[in-house]
Hints:
Elements: H1 6-16, E1 34-40, E2 56-57, E3 60-63, E4 71-78, E5 96-107, E6 113-120, E7 124-125, E8 134-141, H2 145-154, E9 160-173, E10 178-180, E11 184-191, E12 196-197, E13 227-228, H3 236-239
Amino acid sequence: MRRASPLRLISTACVLGGATVLAIASCADNDSSLFIKGAMAPTGECIFEAEGDAALALTGIMDVAYASTYTLPLLVGNQLIARGDADKLRTETARIVIRGAVVNVLSADGTSTLSSFSTNAGGFVDPASGTDPGWGVSFVNAISNELATQLESELALFESRELNISVYVYGDTLGGDEVESSTLTFPLFVCKGCLVDCSTADSVGRCDVFPPEGLELSCFPGQDAALPCQLLTDPEAYCG
């Protein structure tokens, strides 16, 4: 698990009126500096452009018949004001390097937690330009292999289950300050076999010939798009 955020420790000390914060310039909550706008939808050849008007996905589908995780491409914004000045030989310290994420997988009604973990994440977010945030992309594996295996064993063939992914990312500015983002809640439907595409079988119904002519794979096979039956170790279970 990651260490406690200094920002949260500072906020606690401010509430308590602790003398330890006298050397801190500000005790204001800084959650608005870094934020997650949403989960990005792929465009073109699995290209994810770090732009404010990028297409976002409102929900996701994960098929545990093949996928062992669900990858969230997060569009992350930075509202810190640029402080670099070439004339004064002052380097830019408001850029943010993302180094991890905290994920909680919740039931559909939010009353129970199925999984909670920290995971590595990467990304780089430039500072704001005027009133416009800087943008970056961070990929987070939001379902652990252990939970995927558990769900695969619990779900019946073609059954689905709704979950909520609660996630935030954290990192450091180039000036050495730790920051963490706002939290995104992302609805995820987990199923067993619902994305399997049996139409990719050959003329006699076999899925063991790969790849069929013209077959195109999604950016993340097993999530959000049809899954060619050729990818499965036991296609007959789904296409028999």
